[in-house]
């Protein structure tokens, strides 16, 4: 059963996160324009509070929990970015957060989630079901479960990226002909695509995924939600979802063009490019839209293209092999 | 003999660099505000074209060279950031650039300067005089010498950082009570201080330098230009100047408050903080103003403080020891 999200929900989310989330800038880099032969607008959500866009959706959702229910806390499952977003939103709102994270999550993400004040419960990605673990905690505490990409209020919060992007692009006088977004469960992509439907109605929209986790690319092609063959095996730890979210897919089925796919090596090279040339710290999963441009998965010649860099929570050692 | 720079010169520089230089954003980070107990505005010139503010002054100066003289090219001395700024400005304007760089400059800076199309001439920092080498090339070619911080048109170009910062701070409704700028020869600091004299007249201004290269701090205290005891020995390679520039010192003597000084360890820790928490790639010399805040060289409690992060051209290995 799918719940709907509207442009109005995104506008309301924007009002709720105002003053808490960062209105990230829309950046241009001549070195990137020259590399791809077009005009690229970069929305660097690595500069967002907690280091990824996830804070937007988490704060929007948590601030909608009625006062009476807040004392019972929130629970989330996440490989690390939604974890930090929920933990930080809970800290601001004075709520207890419990986060169910895979034991093989990047150590920086486990550590940062704890630093934001959350209790972390780890599980074995291969043997255990994280949603069951979370459901059990919710039953015990009466806590509110916050899904990373299925929750309509989370999708609405992520959609604020799209509203900002469209407004900033207009202010800069550069209207994107295509927008590329790194895609896991599709909460951000759905929110952005929904915002652009009204705010930049003629632009194309592309999801970008890592090889082996191209569930959106395949699902969009055949019109129904397909699963990925494996649950791990890509360096893009932020994008390892089982299949498209139901609500996200509803929106993207209507709105998205062909899904793009990059290899782990292309994602890693894009993160290294971001470090060297853009001076931005980007995690591999946050770099796949940039990777799609740099490895010519889409024709940029003479085009205006906008990309969202979704996160920067990368273990330093991940970048080392590319940069030393 | 000192040449004067006026607020009008900065306004003219702003018009010249428009469309070539990046108008870098003014950023806020809750994690930084919480770390220092105040409100911090960050002007990240690491996101500037070529990875440092130096492109502003270089492009302003080079675009003022009369058409008839452009074919004879430009010459500059630089440890690497001015080098890249001049090289890129020359490339845009179709001029030949020759850059005299110390043989021990960070390899990323040597390589990037060549990538921007310049010819690099290396010298031995301990045994040779770089200005003599540059003067000889100018005599031979009739090229224009572009001094990294003494040239009034370079100072005017760097001053555009101050104009942007003041405008953006007003737009954000956060008026800085102090502005901290990483300082080598003082071209940027002088330009920014000059801009703020009219644009934010009540705010304090602090130079920030690494230990052993605190020539501005000592010179401002005694009212005359003092030299540093050594020519090398700090990790902040961008800030290793012999003594304050004559023109910069004239302006800063009038305008600057107490000069601040940080250790190499504090600069390195600040660069690591920028990587981990701000998701910005910052070189140690570009991180000294941030280091001054993080190591409490200035009282931030309840204050609005603006800092300029001046550059991000760092060899990856420099960050490694702090981050692994």
How is the topology of this model organized?
The structure is a homodimer of 324-residue chains.
Chain A: H1 7-17, H2 30-36, E1 39-44, H3 54-62, H4 67-70, E2 74-77, H5 81-93, E3 97-102, H6 107-115, E4 119-123, H7 130-141, E5 144-145, H8 152-172, E6 178-182, H9 187-199, E7 204-210, H10 215-222, H11 246-255, E8 260-262, H12 264-278, H13 288-294, E9 304-309, H14 316-323
Parallel strand pairs in A: 1-9, 2-3, 2-5, 3-4, 6-7, 6-9, 7-8
Helix pairs in contact in A: 1-3, 1-8, 3-5, 3-8, 5-6, 8-9, 9-11, 12-13, 12-14
Structure explained in plain terms:
Two copies of one chain form a homodimer. Chain A is α/β, with parallel strands linked by helices and 324 residues long. The first copy, chain A, has two domains: 7-52 and 153-323, 3-Layer(aba) Sandwich (Rossmann fold), CATH 3.40.50.1100; 55-150, Rossmann fold (3-Layer(aba) Sandwich). Chain A is 45% helix and 14% strand. The first copy, chain A, is built from 14 helices and nine strands. Chain A has helices at residues 7-17, 30-36, 54-62, 67-70, 81-93, 107-115, 130-141, 152-172, 187-199, 215-222, 246-255, 264-278, 288-294, 316-323; strands at 39-44, 74-77, 97-102, 119-123, 144-145, 178-182, 204-210, 260-262, 304-309. In chain A, the strands form two sheets. In chain A, strands 1-9-6-7-8 form a five-stranded parallel β-sheet, sandwiched between helices. A four-stranded parallel β-sheet of chain A has the order 4-3-2-5, with helices on both faces. In chain A, α9 runs parallel beside α11 (246-255). The A-B interface holds A 22, 25, 27-31, 44, 46-47, 49, 51, 108, 275-282, 312, 316-317, 319-320, 323-324 and B 22, 25, 27-31, 44, 46-47, 49, 51, 108, 275-282, 312, 316-317, 319-320, 323-324.
